[in-house]
Design a protein that fits this description.
Elements lengths: L2 E10 L3 E4 H5 L6 H8 L3 E4 L6 H16 L8 E5 L10 H9 L5 E5 L5 H15 L5 E8 L9 H4 L4 E11 L4 E9 L7 E2 L11 H5 L6 E2 L1 H23 L8 E4 L4 H10 L11 H4 L6 H11 L8 E8 L3 E8 L1
Parallel strand pairs: 4-5, 4-6, 11-12
Antiparallel strand pairs: 1-7, 2-3, 6-7, 8-13, 9-10, 12-13
Helix pairs in contact: 3-4, 8-9
The structure holds acetyl coenzyme *A (ACO).
Acetyl coenzyme *A (ACO) binds next to helix 2, helix 6 and helix 8.
């Protein structure tokens, strides 16, 4: 059976690390609160001149090198981001230019934290329609630029980084098995960036009112994230014809350790089958899952033939899960 398979994955995180102790000097918070409520100890912050397209380019370059593929061989570039270099053009186009991927068409996916899973699923459809295609899926975020550094309820949560995966057709049973993607746009204002779009174009007023920063109803988001990520895991297992005992490793979106723990307990998964690196990076939105998978490969936590589930939840609301055989 032909499947779309991730043949390589890379990631990039900026050099600068912002610890909880550093944050104590910026807002009224403390390491104990952040650690207990979120599981985050530190996050990486991009340089002022380091753009999402630069971080995405670095992650993509690593994935290309690992797969031994030339940029000219890429047919499609998809980029999950909500913090792209510009509103237009798409960050995917900038990454295409930086890579010199002259034969690719490129576009962005605005699905917040679910951007990577949505991207993999779209890539799969292109590959199943034409098994000669090579697709690059990038997730890159500079959330530090859209963070209100005076709001302790949000600024402790986020970080910057990028991940990138190359997908091709495979006929050895490995690759994407099933996906389950959902959206509820009625809840669009639970996490949002109110200013800068057509509804509230940038003006002195929007800047004064800090409308160019993320706002979030944290408690409500927490509850929905737990419920919808559990739903996603359960559905994708059914679609894959797997039980939870078949799964070697689950990669949840890294938004809050308590969200991950609640899901793990509800679906009754052992701790060592749930990948966690939120302590080092915080929530890098679309990039958390590819960074996690890339790190898991580097530390030999997944191997060929393993059954894997990726699950996410983000602004929109968007959520979903994807199952694959590595
Ligand atoms: N340091 C110290 N105290 C704080 C901080 C802080 N950084 N932030 C909030 N508090 C205080 C609050 O003011 C409140 O004080 P009060 O009781 O005197 O009013 C108290 O801590 C408890 O606040 P809660 O908001 O109830 O804390 P909670 O345990 O719910 O944790 C959090 C808040 C971490 C934001 C949690 O709700 C959460 O993780 N929500 C989900 C976030 C998420 O997943 N977002 C996804 C976004 S992804 C995307 O698409 C970009």
């Amino acid at each position: 059976m032909n499947r779309a398979k991730i043949i390589s994955i890379g990631h990039y995180t900026p050099k600068k690390i912002l610890t909880n102790t550093d944050l104590e000097k910026m807002v009224d918070t403390n390491d104990e609160w952040i650690t207990q409520r979120t599981g985050i100890k530190e996050r990486h912050i991009a340089r002022i001149d380091e753009m999402p397209s630069d971080m995405g380019y670095e992650a993509a370059k690593e994935a290309l090198e690992k797969a031994n593929i030339n940029p000219e061989d890429i047919d499609i570039i998809l980029c999950g981001t909500v913090s792209g270099d510009y509103i237009t053009p798409a960050t995917a186009c900038l990454i295409q230019a930086k890579l010199g991927a002259k034969n690719a068409f490129a576009f962005d996916i605005s699905a917040a934290c679910s951007g990577f899973i949505y991207g993999l699923s779209i890539a799969e459809k292109f590959i199943l329609a034409d098994n000669t295609k090579t697709v690059l899926v990038v997730a890159t975020e500079k959330i530090s630029n859209i963070t209100n550094w005076e709001d302790r309820a949000t600024c402790v949560l986020f970080g910057d980084g990028a991940g990138a995966a190359i997908l091709k057709s495979s006929n050895d049973n490995s690759g994407i098995v099933a996906s389950y993607l959902k959206t509820d746009g009625d809840l669009y204002d639970y996490i949002m960036l109110p200013g800068g779009g057509s509804k509230n174009p940038a003006s002195l007023e929007t800047v004064k009112n800090k409308q160019h920063y993320l706002t979030m109803k944290g408690n409500e988001v927490f509850k929905y994230a737990v419920t919808k990520m559990i739903e996603s895991v359960e559905k994708v297992l059914v679609h894959s014809n797997w039980t939870k005992d078949d799964v070697n490793m689950i990669f949840p979106h890294q938004a809050n350790i308590r969200i991950i723990d609640s899901i793990r307990k509800k679906i009754n998964f052992d701790k060592d089958r749930v990948f966690i690196n939120i302590n080092k990076y915080g929530n890098t939105s679309a990039a958390t899952i590819p960074i996690a998978v890339s790190e898991a490969l580097q530390s030999n936590k997944i191997k060929a033939g393993d059954k894997i589930v990726l699950v996410s939840f983000g602004s929109g609301f968007t959520w979903g899960a994807l199952s694959l055989i590595w």
